[in-house]
Amino acid sequence: MSTESPFPHSLRTLLWPETLRNPAPVYSAWRETDPFFWFDELGTWVLTRHADCAEVLRRLDLFSSDWRRVGERLPDELIMLQSVDPPDHPPVRRLLAAAYRAQDHAALAGRTAERVRRRLAGLGGAEVEFVHEVAIPLTVETICDLLGVDPPDLDWLTSVSPSVVDTMDGGLRPEVMPAGIAARAEIDAVIAHWMTDHRPDGMFAFVAEKLRTVDVDRRLLLNSLRSTFHAGFESSARLLALSLLAFIDNPDTLQNFPENPDSGVEELIRYTSQVQVLARACLTDTEIGGRKVRAGEGVTLIIGAANRDPAVFADPDALRLDRAHNPHLGFGRGLHACLGAGVASAQTRALFTELARAGHTVRPHAAPVMWDSGTLRGVRSLPVTFAQEVVPCATSTDR
Ligand code: HEM
């Protein structure tokens, strides 16, 4: 195996403008040269092969989401489902999963489809900034419908949410942490309000009712509700916008979406991999992927790279909406697997089915602007015209 890569073996490479737009060349160069490398700046191994990433997610006895178990401090506001292990994790996961399952998902999907139709109506020939005019409002309305609460002010939400996302890259950019803590506190105030001000159905009503009889760690629960709300619109909106960009980059694919709605959604999640990175702490000295990993070391899983691993996916850089075998890691796997995958998928299916059926093709009328975040990839601005002709576009990363 050669160790010559055109791209430095550094997590900072994920923040380069050209990588933000298209990380695939970095993924394949890393996998082909050194697929399991040490990144000294953060004291972590970086894993790019699907088999290694899946193994780490499976081995809960060896790898933890709770960094307190290797002696790190976890600020109170970050104690949530994603960052705790058993015995803390199951009671809150069970409660939120029960609240999620209790919803009428067929009715929710029907309302989502109706919102999609209303939002797309009359867009033929119009110039639209897809992120702010379609993806964000749609995903905020959907998650609030699921939670059973009134959508908050979008200007406020789009001003605080990026600060929360920035903290996911906090290891590389410690200067973003104070703004992220302040943003989380603002969202926490809304979550506390929703605990008492909600519809009689919806996840908040279910949780509030159960709290009369079930005893769970309240801080863990409220932080987890915050992250459910935040992931519910931010990850989902990024999936929609990155997917539209994928359709622009791969002309003649959108119109095939209605023939393959289920495999098509899975493929969009694999191909766009907006959750690009997951992190775990090693609990016990072990060997994985031919490397010795010691207790206390970090393990950074490049999910985006795993999702393009040719050992698992034939022609991995092609967008194939009818891909049959698609064991992507885009929603995670195992104990911490995404709680809202079904809702995110249903919304994606509704949007692109409707867009394709309306006969819209998509033409960019300015270059897309990417978010400069490495952990949660995304498009910050995507100006498009819904028209007759599709052309690939260049990019800018200006903030
Ligand atoms: C495209 C949209 C989404 C993507 C790509 C995504 C991805 C993920 C991933 C990769 C994880 C695993 C984290 C880990 O292992 O450390 C996760 C966990 C989670 N997701 Fe999502 N998510 C999406 C949408 C949603 C939605 C709509 C909701 C809420 C309705 C949601 C709620 C959660 C929660 C609560 C967890 C933590 C689960 C746990 O630790 O037990 N996500 N998500």
Give an account of the 3D structure.
The model has no long low-confidence stretch (mean pLDDT 95). The chain is built from 13 helices and twelve strands. Strand 1 (36-39) and strand 2 form a beta hairpin. Helix 5 (105-120) runs antiparallel to helix 6 and helix 10 (218-249) packs across helix 11 (261-272). The strands form four sheets. It has a five-stranded mixed β-sheet with strand order 1-2-8-5-3, sandwiched between helices. A three-stranded antiparallel β-sheet has the order 4-12-9. A two-stranded antiparallel ribbon has the order 6-7. It has one domain: Cytochrome P450 (Cytochrome p450, Orthogonal Bundle). Helices cover 45% and strands 11% of the residues. By secondary structure, the protein is α+β, with helices and mostly antiparallel strands. The two termini are 39 Å apart. The chain has helices at residues 17-21, 24-33, 50-58, 89-101, 105-120, 130-147, 154-167, 177-196, 203-210, 218-249, 261-272, 303-306, 341-357; strands at residues 36-39, 44-47, 63-64, 127-129, 277-282, 286-288, 291-293, 298-302, 361-364, 369-370, 379-381, 383-387. Protoporphyrin IX containing FE binds at residues 65, 81-82, 93, 143, 146, 227-228, 231-232, 235-236, 239, 274-275, 278, 330-332, 336, 338-340, 343-344. This is Cytochrome P450. Belongs to the cytochrome P450 family. Pfam families: p450. GO terms for molecular function: heme binding; iron ion binding; monooxygenase activity; oxidoreductase activity, acting on paired donors, with incorporation or reduction of molecular oxygen. Keywords: Heme, Iron, Metal-binding, Monooxygenase, Oxidoreductase.
